[in-house]
Amino acid sequence: KKKKKAGGTKPKDLLVTVGPSLGVCCCEFGIEGSNQFLSIDKACVVWKENHPKPFLNLRLAASILLVKEGIPKSNIDDGTSDGSALATCTKCDPDRKLFSFRRDGPQFGNQVGFIGMK
User: Fold this and answer.
1) What is d(CA 103, CA 107) in angstroms, rounded to the nearest whole number?
2) Which of the 8 DSSP states describes residue 56?
3) Sign of the dihedral defined by the CA atoms of residues 86, 87, 89, 92, in that order
4) I need a labelling partner for 36 at 20 to 30 A (CA). Which of 12, 45, 46, 61 fits?
5) Do residues 60 and 41 touch, judged by C-beta distance below 8 A?
6) Strands 55-56, 45-46: parallel, antiparallel or unpaired by DSSP?
7) pLDDT digits over 14-73, tens only?
């Protein structure tokens, strides 16, 4: 299967950074909704002892989907390999540097994503 090109860019040439997000430590999710993540990879859904609902590994799901689209794993930085701030859970971050709906509720918060080309 030939991979898609957008703007003349091939997926194998992309560099991707996955920013901070809700971590598997705090991403408790409903059983029905988590079934969608099972279709990505069973490792994306984590059952913890004494918890009736599963937890999702959103970072792993994003990486797997990016690889399926042709982006080499070596071109994806999600912060997990070096423990960088990219891997920060937005809910349980002790410094509360980032907005988290699950931690703070519906009060205003901003996060930004961007795409750049050279």
Assistant:
1) 10
2) E
3) negative
4) 12
5) yes
6) antiparallel
7) 889 888 888 999 999 998 889 999 999 999 999 999 999 999 999 999 999 999 999 999
